[in-house]
Amino acid sequence: MLLTVVRDPACRQFPAKTIMTLRKSLLLLLTVAFLHTYAGAAAQTLTLSVKNAPLEDVFKEIKRQSGYALFFDYSWLKQAHPVTISASKISLHEALDLCFQGQPFTYQIVNKNIFLKLAAPVQVKMVEPAASVQPPIDVHGRIVNENGEPVVASVIVKGSATGTTSNANGEFQLNGIADNAVLLITATNIEKLEWPVKGKTELVVRAKTAVNALNDIVVVGYGTQKRTEVTGAVSTVDKRLLENRPVTNAVAALQGTSPGLTITRFSGQPGKEEYNAQIRGFSSINGNNSALVLIDGVEGDLTLINPNDIESVSVLKDAAAASIYGAKASGGVIIVTTKKGVADKLSFTYSALTTFNHAFGIPKRIHSWEEAQMQNEAFINAGSNPAYTDQQIGWMKDPNINYIVDPVNPSIYDYYYDLNQVDLLMRKTSFSQSHNLSLRGGSDKTQYLFSFGYYDQDGVFKFGPDGTKRYNARLNLNTKLSKIFSLDARISYSRGNTLSPSGDTYADYGLLYGIYQLRTLYPVFLPESNNTKYARVRSGPTTYQILKDGGYGETQRNKLDGIFTLKADNIAKGLSLRLIYSPGLNLSNENDFQRTIPLYDIGPEPTKFIFLPNQISKSRILQTRTDVQALADYDLTVATRHHFHLLGGYQYQYYNSDSAGTTASALISNDVPSLNLSSDPTVPPISGDNIQTNALLSYFGRFDYNFNGKYFLEATLRNDASSQLSPGRRSQYFPSVSGAWRLNTEPWFEGLSGIFNEFKLRGSWGKLGNSNVLGNYDYISMLTQGPVYPFNNARNNSIYQSVLASPDKSWETIETSDGGIDAGLLKNRLTVNLDYYVRRNNNMLVVLNAPATLGLIPSATNSARLLTKGWELNIGWKDRISRFNYWINFNIADNTNKIIRYDGQNVVTEGLNGIIEGMPINSIYGYQASGYFKTAAEVTGHAFQDDRTGPGDIVYVDQDKSGRIDGGLNRPDNHGDLVYLGNTSPRYTFGMNLGFEWNGFDFSALLQGVGKRNMLIYPSAIVPFVDAWRQPWQINQNYWTPQNQDALFPRLYLGGTQNTLTSSKWIQNASYIRLKNLQIGYSLPGSVIRRLKIEKARIFFSGQDIWEHSKMWYKYFDAESPNNAAYNYPFFRSYAIGLNLTF
Amino acid sequence: MTTTTSNKVFLLSFIVLLSGCSKKLDQYPQTDLSDHNFWNTTNDMKLACNYLYSFLPDITTKTDDDMSVDAFAQVANPVSNGSRLPSSTSTDWSNNYTLIRACNNILEKSVKVTGSAVDINKYLAETKFFRAWAYFELVKRFGDVPLILKTLSLSDTALYGSSTNREIILDTIYADLDFATANLPLSNAQAAEEYGRITASAALAFKSRVALFEGTRQKFFGYGHYQTHLQVALDASNQLISSGSNGLYADPVHPDSSYYYLFQYSGEGMDNPENILVRIYGENEINDISSNNYTRSVLDEGALTPTGNIVADYLYKDGLPKDKSPYYQTQTDTYTEFQNRDPRMAMSIFNKYSWYVSGLYVPTFEYTQTGYRSCKYYIAADWVVNVSYIDNIIIRYAEVLLNNIEAKFELGGAVSDQDLNNTINLIRARSGMPALTNGFVSANGLDMRSEIRRERRIEFAFEGMRYWDLLRWKTAETELPQQVVGAKYFPAEQGTLANPNLTPEGLVIVEEAANRKFNPLRDYLWPIPTKEIGLNKNLQQNPNW
Q: What is the pLDDT of residue A94?
């Protein structure tokens, strides 16, 4: 510690006018004349240099540097004498000790609040002492917020100097006060409160959480900022939206919470939902454009983290906010911070959630004879003989005849059942539960949080392996090693265990396809076998058999992460350093067992097998990550108004994925799936391994300048060098600049200050990289192992080159300009954020459409440019009417993209077109449908479509009047009759959350949706009998006949692919609105639960995905399904009952 | 620890950290090969050549017969009935260029290889065979195509070049095959463990196929110098025949049914001299390297079913066709038409006295539109497990014999009885059919060309040859627009059809003639995938597509 007395002329130059405006804003914030609160940015060490300064000024400085708020009675300052201090790198305690030397005060620090107390009780005369006829009383009180949580606050008897602060349990004691006294209760996180004692000696003071959201601390790249100081486009997600949700994981909980953040999922299969989080839509045609997820500063996995461990989530959307993360941040950044321990006595929280899941969107099947009749019609229309005779159809209808011995082949049965296997196999309701336990506490020196989470979800199938479990454990520990050094250790372990049936559940020819689309006339078991033998069925479903006896697929993910931060505060004046070491370990075990299932006809021997030979595959993937960061922060204030912050950093990231797998087949035992049991030693199990590594070395810096809380300027520069690029092309700079102007701090704005509490303009520009789409060794000419060939009945390996090497490749650089407004109105109850942005991917990697004469896949080259424009709006309202506390937030975002350069040949094909110059990504081209042909004459009079075309088929418009329906030359200048039918990117994604709290009751709802999206459906699933075995659903019964010309579907036709071409007929408008979450809770009154030694008890109902409305006319697919989806694992409606307890 | 010491420790760790990690940016593949560490030994060449074998036609290419009227799948074939439209992409185009690139890559990269010249040339010869193979697959479909003889990069102008005249491509094919012939062993000189690799016999046999295709095509379409190509076909087949490296299969246990057992497991391997070029599947369920589902998924489920059209063309056992033979009789049950026929008919098509999966075959229309089911390559034992390891014979010696006699006939307009005895009659004798002679032809008012062609149709029934023969003979325009029929309808035997559409003779009509078209100005060449034309402006679409 350095302590000298110096003269500081800057102190004298503090202009009176600034003090005035400062005071005004303080008045605004606090609205109390004699109580003063200071809140400021966090900084752990202080540097003070004042001479004969009023104590008030010193307090200002302390609050600015430390971020701690001070509470005291303004009148006390009259007794204070001026201070002279010159000290650098001193702790807060030391600074306060210096200030209070010889002063009549002492202080107490609780949770970033400094509460002043008079050193000795001072007898203060009451305003009307004569009026008080009652003797003074001793009061014991407890301050709680609307959630029943204790509040640490300053408690002062109004009009006196008597005061105290409540402790961590919210409790306080005031002795000898008037029985009609009024208590003034203040703290930064609650609204100011006056509470009359009314002679009671036991008080429960109900405080209300403050709504001044604009003063929130926002987590940004490598640090935090006050909401008012943020210059980039950053939104934060309310922790409340993540808690107590019956969702699979944290990504699911983020859906709809933040404008511009689009969460999509692929299926409802537990543990295999394949969530993707995209910020502001496409930044590239490559990869999944997902956001970079950082958990406590290092890359993490949102699907494995315990949602209850999350303290805050920041979404960095524009280049200025994200560019500090450089080459990986093109998709934006989601920063997750986990909860920390508190310097308080141990508290214990338990929450439990029991959920009932109800699958929806399952196709409705029809009776076997209805299928058969339709099949006959399809066969006849296609010129074939009908498949079933009237007698056979009669047997299907007859419940007494389900099978006959085949008249020409006595060894087999012919089946005439009517068995809807959807009902047989799929549950109406499945079950999931979660339990979370956390312990929090600590002392001034050391704080800890330990949490344990358990989540368990069953799938939709009534039996068989189908479900997922997750276990989370976390220990966050921070401890102060010395005055300068502190250590923060965050260790988390998670284990996800997903069991699924053998083979794919979804997709064509998967298990759901089997029961959704194959014939219902087949049984599961062989008749007269007493349900002991499975029947062999021709092109019939085998889902039952595979679920019950076909083995399993098992995925276990074990993830162990540690983040160790050694921090040195104020190691030199204004300078603090952080050294972060984060090892990560991810071990995935995948085991796949295909068990042989015999199927029978009449006769003792099986006539067919599923999964023959049986087979066990095991793979072990060990992924290790090393992330080392060194960060330096430097704070400097010049002339009190010029605030500078510098951040310098170094980061090295190394990833290694080492996997090995073995497959053994024809095992001796059908029930012990072990690699040891390969039946023939001459045919050893097949093994393979794969090692992938990459490294990224980065330097970065950020410069922040803040003029008096009015003008803000920020600039960042990052250099990344990646092992994935060829030497000489490895390193690249990613710069950004941004600025903000708080108009409300200008004198001329005062007229509007009654309406606007905050009005900030923001602007930014920056460059980001997209390295996610690079392969690890793209620049090296790699050889691939081809198929084995059985010369001499041995496995003869083969080697070939499958892709062109690309030594000239570079990562994509994405430039974003963003302009935004942040406003707080009507006492900050109304907040508005608006952003507009333009984003250019200047050297997008594309695989050029090369003629097939090239002979292999060309590698991607940086030869396209993508332009994205979009906007986001967030409007929030929070208020309280008496004890009714409510809020509503609405967010909406939109963006459009266009490929503005493509060096390859543009090709326009029917269906999805990834890239065409001048068009958006994933443009759909197809034929314009125009009703159905009514007569044969209409067919011959129309342009030639297909030899099969007849009445009842879809009419395609002959756009080019060529007399033939085709795609022309499939070029932009000649694509025949193909027309643009929109693109698949979602537009107008929106979310709305609203809620209230009242007398222990709480309610919240989250609505989420998409305003516009075009969706393609897998054609074979739409139109029955594209293959003979693809059966119709209830919806398909509305098909064209001469009597039903306005039908939903064209005429039935075997192999009727003339109707499944991409056309306007089948494109769905997949816009929707969905009630994502609904929560109703009740917190038991404190008087009831305190007797049980419980601090807080809340019971609640939480519903997920419980209602939606979509514009799709084809209702069997959910509007959230991906394109060309069919037979997807259904999504669930979840109804949950939960409990939160804090001891 | 004092503050100053800890400061130093802290700063020191900073420095260690910064310097320690900076050199780790060089990462190399650890589990994959790259050009840098390959192409050194002849074994590397062998590994590269092994990849080429994955391009050998798999057994499902036998369903090429669905493009003719000799076979029918569950639904009508758009090539056969002339309804297809140009597609935007096609593996018939792209896969062959993938193979050509792989070949060119080996030819270029192998200059680095050191080893015995014999071995190096052997693998170069295999490579050139495959390049010739790919080009013929392209030419027979598309006619003129771009000729690429080196590996291209994205910036090569050759990538956007125009098509090369087929004559030049054929010369390249011949040259490649001559190199292969010169540097590879004949079938009978091949080491047992090498069985399945390309031989000089395969190169010669393939050359006769290519040259016969082009020779007859030029003759009947009237362009070029067909004699040159026919002479090449004749020379190549003569060279192979006179080498004695191959012969017809004779089953040691059932010599009368050799033709049947040729397509069963007993016909597999190098002990069968008829196998000139095969795609190997192997070995069995335990050692499952590569398998097919031909028995169940193709033959049994009706993806390739014989038609009444080819059934009508089988000779009777006296060597006479249906309209001339006294053996012909009106059908009274499903078996009548098998009686007194060319024995190959019952060895190619199931009848009610054929052994089926687990008993005698029951004629049916289930999973067969025609009511027939082929037993060629049908392995009863594989039906239950639906996995088969039967090899696909791509070129067999019988073809060389028939190539030889046809080339000779088309070149000279006549063949001697000796010529016939050296070729066709060997095949007929194996099947138990009487010899074909000039005298027999003239005595019965037959026509030698038709009989040579009929022999080809019958011998190679359901082996995927017919459509390509029709193209080169220029007879597709008369053969393909015919009505496609199935078996005669006998409900008591085959089970009832709900609404049978029958000919006056009672045959099931599978596809009406009215639905079948062949445009001679268009359909003799296939349409080039439209995407390729879109990508390469110098590429011309074939006429009228």
A: 76
DSSP β-bridge partners for residue A90: A46
Decide: B521 and B543 in contact? Cβ < 8 Å: yes
- Given pLDDT bands bounded at 50, 70 and 90, which one contains residue A127? very low
| CB-CB neighbors (< 8 A) of B160 in chain A | 851
A1111: exposed, middle or buried (Cβ count in 10 Å: 0-12, 13-18, 19+): middle
CB A954 within 8 A of CB A929: yes
Whether omega for the bond prior to residue A273 falls within 30 degrees of 0, making it cis, is: no
Q: Could you count the other beta carbons within 10 Å of the beta carbon of residue B159? A: 20
Contacts of B219-224 spanning 24+ positions with Cβ under 8 A: B219/B410, B220/B472, B220/B473, B220/B474, B221/B474, B221/B524, B224/B167
Which range is least confidently modeled, A147-156, A373-382, A629-638, A776-785?
Answer: A147-156
pLDDT at A189 (0 to 100): 66
CB contact under 8 A, B530 and A798: no
Which comes out higher in pLDDT, residue B64 or B7? B64
ipTM rounded to 2 decimals: 0.92
Residue A210: per-residue pLDDT: 62
Mean pLDDT estimate for chain A: 83
Answer yes or no: are the C-beta atoms of A437 and A451 closer than 8 Å: yes
Q: Which of A60-64, A427-431, A668-672, B414-418 has the highest mean pLDDT?
A: B414-418
Shortest Cα–Cα distance, B447 to chain A (Å)? 37
Contacts of B77 in chain A (CB under 8 A): none
Question: Other C-beta atoms within 10 Å of A781: how many?
Answer: 18
> Do strands A830-847 and A860-881 pair parallel, antiparallel, or not at all (unpaired)?
antiparallel
CA distance A689 to chain B (A): 7
Helix, strand and coil content of chain A, in percent to the nearest 5, comes to 15, 45, 40
* Mean pLDDT value across residues B327-337: 95
Rounded-to-10 torsion of CA B40, B46, B47, B48: 80
Percent of chain A beyond pLDDT 90? Answer: 31
**The pLDDT of residue B159:** 93
Structure tokens at B118: 């014999």
Please name the amino acid found at residue A949. T
Q: Which of A447-461, A1113-1127, B291-305, B384-398 is the least confident region?
A: A1113-1127
For residue B498, give the nearest of A385, A612, A947 by CB distance.
Answer: A385
* 3-state DSSP assignment of residue B174: helix
The pair of three-digit structure tokens given for residue A62, joined into one six-digit string: 């302390």
Q: How far apart are the first and last CA of chain B?
A: 87
3-state DSSP: chain B helix, strand, coil percent, rounded to 5?
Answer: 50, 10, 45
For A387-412, the pLDDT digits (tens) are 888 999 999 999 999 999 987 778 88
All residues at 6 or more sequence positions from B332 whose CB lies less than 8 Å from its CB, including other chains: none
A395, A368 Cβ separation under 8 angstroms: no
In the block, residue with structure tokens 């306005």: A1046
Sequence letter at residue A404 = I
Q: Is the pLDDT of residue A677 over 70?
A: yes
CA distance B457 to B307: 13
Length of chain A: 1143
Task: Please report the DSSP string for A76-122 in residue order.
Answer: GGGG---EEEEEEEEEHHHHHHHHTTTSSEEEEEETTEEEEEESS--
Facing A630 at nearest CB: one of B18, B29, B494: B18
Which residue does chain A place closest to B35, by CA atoms? Answer: A781
Whole-angstrom CA distances from A897 to A502, B271, B495 are: 40, 65, 60
Rg (CA), chain A: 35
Query: Between residues A433 and A130, which one has the greater pLDDT?
Result: A433
Please report residues of B whose CB lies closer than 8 A to that of A384: 75, 369
pLDDT on residue B178: 98
Q: Which helix (H) or strand (E) holds A26?
A: helix A16-30
Q: Which helix (H) or strand (E) holds B141?
A: helix B117-142
